[in-house]
Amino acid sequence: ADADTDSTQIETRRDLFFDRQDGQLDLSGWLATQKGFLPIGSVITEPAVGYGGALGLLFLHDSIANRAAQAAVPNPDGTLPRMSPPSASGVVGFLTENGSWGGGAFHNGIFLEDHLRSLSVFFYNELELEFYGIGGSFQLPIEKIDYSLNGSFFRQQFMSRVADSDVFIGINYKYASFDNQFKFDTDLDLPDFLTQPRNIKTASAGMAVEYDTRNTTFTPDKGINSRLEGNFFEEALGSDRSFFKGSLNMRGWIPMKKRFVLGLRWDNGAADEDTPFYMLPSMDQRGISLTR
To answer: Which of 185, 98, 176 is nearest to 142 (CA)?
Structure first.
């Protein structure tokens, strides 16, 4: 009996780190059972800042496995409750080959059986980027100009579920203060905003609608996540200038065959003419500079 028990424990431990079907290394079983502190590393391949790495320390207030066990207990009417993600807090830092670096902290809170979600983020960064122009009537006389963007960013968001649906409606506040300085060695005739160092403060109140049917917020392989958001930047909120910025983002995951999931993504952004140049909509695609 003891031998059987030991064998079961060994097999259980093995299932935490290796996939049962193909025997290959798979940490998802271990990650699903964890709560407490969890280190996470990531490789940065963004052309705007060069190769680098990020390291975060995540604190899970509950395990995914425990949330799944709670969702397996039927409601009084026989239906199964929705599986809600655990609350999570964390710190993160990054460094890249062109000298860009940054760090910050966040807390994502899940309350009232996932009927209320809150997100708090504070981040500081010093970035070395490239400006390619803004299109339309303004074109650079050269391909690009290097510039630095140093400062801090804060965001507070609250999202409330509509009845018992998959729709959330919420509000947010954003504040940022960035110093930007362009760097070039030519005698080109350029606008003042390219030749003088500036500090720009932006602050906004925003509204958002989100539709979320993902089977997990960490590594989804089924469901849809779409978000429509509009932010109004006003001097009364602490902003140096007034402007509007909006976005519509959609993500979809469709299981195909045993080992394949089709991922779909669609992004759209809009901003008016008083938006700071570094906040204008740009490409967000692996292999293409973020600032294009």
So the answer is: 185
